[in-house]
Design a protein that fits this description.
about 160 residues, mainly alpha
Amino acid sequence: MRFLRNRWVALIAALVLGGFFIYAAWHKIQDPPDFAKAVFNFKLVPWQAINATAIYLPWFELLAGLAVLTGLGRRGGAFALAALLCVFIAAIGFNLYRGHPTVCGCFETYESAKNLTPEIKFWRMQREILLDTGLLLLSALVIYASCACSRDAEPAPRPS
């Protein structure tokens, strides 16, 4: 477990996690109506909240990714991304359970994937769950490493 506290392992994990979410947020920020279609197709968000979700969720992903990537609020950003990943895994898993093939909207636009067969959509949903689980483990590593670094830090000298 000592290698998990290695600062280089933690830095690589933070770069991968933060960079992943920054990249994933970019096309959603550029085209909110397309992302709104992906959110709608999950059939989990009330219709009144679809547009707000499509507008604010990518910015939240971007800011949390930047926090993890830059180190300014790394632990908080990693907690936020871990919570988002749990929601994403649950949403995709629930749609798999109920037999509703959908496009995640993470890296592809809704329009580019709407002509896919249900079998391909199901396969991609399973792949997304595996990817999100891996990212959840990365976020746990970043959280653990940031907590370990703060525990291992030398206490500030007390004035005499």
